[in-house]
Amino acid sequence: MGADCRMNPSLKTLQSYPFERLGALLADVEPAPLSPIDFSIGEPRQTPPAFFAEVIMEHLHGLAQYPKILGSLSLRQAIVHWANERFSLPQGFLDPERNVLPANGSREALFSVAQAVLDPHGGKDRVLIPNPFYQIYEGAALLAGATVQYCNCKASGQPDYRAISDDIWRRTALLYVNSPHNPTGSALSLEDWLFLLEQARRFDFVLAADECYSEIYFDRPPTGVLEAAASTGSLARVLTFHSLSKRSSVPGARSGFVAGDAELLAGFRQYRTYLGNAMPPFIQAASAAAWSDESHVEQTRRDYGEKFALAAEILGSFLTIHRPDGGFYLWLSVGHGEDFSRALYAQENVRCLPGAYLARLAQGEYPGEDRVRIALVGDTDTCREGLLRIRHFLETSAWLERKRS
C-alpha cells in the first residue's frame, strides 16, 4: 500500500491515440440533432463473405486445441499461393515452411516486430516512419527504446526517401513503409521499392512493408515489395505485412500474415512463441478460405469505387477529391483540420479525423495539419448521407471563405 508502481518509463512518451484526441476535441461541442455519422474510424463495414463464418462454425472443434505459432500448413500454403498470383512471384520464391508466419492481424505484428528485431546495444538507434503515419509504428519504436525519425510525406503522398542522408541510413535499424499509405492513399512504384531494398541491404536495416491496403485499389493493383524482392532474387532484410481486415472486411477476426526474410522470421517466430500470439485454429481455417477467394474482394473494390465516385460527384465542386492508389480514405485539404472537425460536428453531427492527429511536427513541418481524413467505410447510403451533409456544411457556412483567407 502506498508503494510506487514502477512501469516502463517509455509508456509516458506515448501520445494519446487519435480517437481519444478526437473525443477530447469534440467533448464540449453540442452536435446537431441529426443521426450521427462517423467517418473518423477506418473500420471496414462491408458485409464479410458468408463462407468466412461458415468455415469458423465448421472448425469450432479447434477450441479444444492450443494453436501453434506457425499456424497450419494449409493456411501458409494458401497465403503463398495468393502471394504468388497477386505479385507474380516465381514458384518456390516463398517457402511456406520458412518465409511465412500467420499473425493476429497486421497491427500486432507491426508492433511486435520492433521488439523482436531492435538491438538496444547494436549501435543503430533510429526507426524511420512516414509522417503522417499509423500510430503503431511510433509506439512500437518508443517502447523498444529507439529514436523515431519522422519522414515527412511530400505532395506525392509518400516521403522522399532518396533525400535521406547516408548518415541517417547508417543509424537506421528499422524502416516502416506504408504502401498504399494511410491516410494519403499513395503507393510506391517498383523503382521506389528497389531503392529501399538496396538501402536496407547496403546499410543493414529491416524494411517493414505495411501493405494492408494493397487490395483496395481502383485503376491497377499497387506494386508490392515482394515483386521488387523477386526481381532481385532475394528476400534479404525485407518483411511484408498483410491483413484480411481490409481485404475481406473481417477486422474482428484479427487475421493477417508476415512474409519475407527466413532468418528474420525465425527470430520473430521465437519471439512470438514466448509472447503467445497464435491464431485460433478456426480463424486459420476461415483465413485459408479467404485468401483462396478473390470474388468477394472484387465486389469490395467495386463498392469502394462507387463511394469515391459519389464523393467526387457530391463534393467535387467544393473540394479537391483525389481517388487514391489504394485504401478507402479521402484526405481533404480544408484549411485547419481541428477547426473544421468541430464545426462540421456541431452543424451536421458528422465526425471526421483531423489530419494533425496522424502526424507530428518534424523538420519545421506539420504534415496534415490543414487536412481531415474521411473513411468511406459505411454502406453506400450512409456515405451518401454523410457526404451530402458535408456539402451542406460547405454551402451554408463561411468555411470556404475562411479557408481562402
List the helices and strands and how they pair.
Layout lengths: L17 H9 L10 E2 L11 H9 L14 H15 L12 E4 L1 H13 L8 E6 L3 H9 L3 E6 L13 H6 E7 L11 H14 L2 E5 L14 H8 L5 E6 H4 L8 E5 L1 H14 L5 H11 L3 H21 L13 E5 L3 H12 L1 E2 L1 E2 L16 E5 L4 H17 L2 H6 L1
Parallel strand pairs: 1-10, 3-4, 3-5, 5-6, 6-7
Antiparallel strand pairs: 2-8, 7-8, 9-12, 11-12
Helix pairs in contact: 2-11, 3-11, 4-5, 4-10, 7-8, 12-14
Can you put this structure into words, describing what you see?
This protein is of the alpha/beta class. It folds into 2 domains: 15-42 and 295-404, Alpha-Beta Complex (Aspartate Aminotransferase, domain 1); 50-291, Aspartate Aminotransferase, domain 2 (3-Layer(aba) Sandwich), CATH 3.40.640.10. It has 15 helices and 12 strands. The protein has helices at 18-26, 50-58, 73-87, 105-117, 135-143, 166-171, 190-203, 225-232, 244-247, 262-275, 281-291, 295-315, 337-348, 380-396, 399-404, and strands spanning 37-38, 100-103, 126-131, 147-152, 172-178, 206-210, 238-243, 256-260, 329-333, 350-351, 353-354, 371-375. The strands form 3 sheets. The protein has a 7-stranded mixed β-sheet, sandwiched between helices. The chain has a 3-stranded antiparallel β-sheet with strand order 9-12-11. Helix 4 packs parallel to helix 5 (135-143). It is globular and about 60 Å long. 47% of the residues are buried. The model has no long low-confidence stretch (mean pLDDT 95).
